[in-house]
Input
Amino acid sequence: MRVSARKINGVLEKELFGMFYQLIADLKNPQEAKQVFEEFLGETESLTFAKRLGVIYWLTKGRTVTNIRENLAVSSATIETIKHHLPKSDGLKLAVRKITAEEWANKWSEKIRKIVK
Output
């Protein structure tokens, strides 16, 4: 991850990140998140984040580095870095839990809908 060369006051930086994290926590659904992040992030920033999320997800599903590299158009170095950090990163593990919980809920919701019909 690249760090900005233009530093700001540490206290101000802490406040800005506090606002940023609170904004994310307050978004109520994917539509709100899309609306906000499309305005704040450039297309490249959004795609980079989404690809990294995809790498994390697919690594936990057992996909190979080659498969991920070819499908997501990311470098082997990026995949290996994420792969190295995944077991010890609480943030990455939390992201995987959130994604898989949503996946599980959608799967069972669809099964229930089919039964109810």
The chain has a mean pLDDT of 90. The radius of gyration is 17 Å.
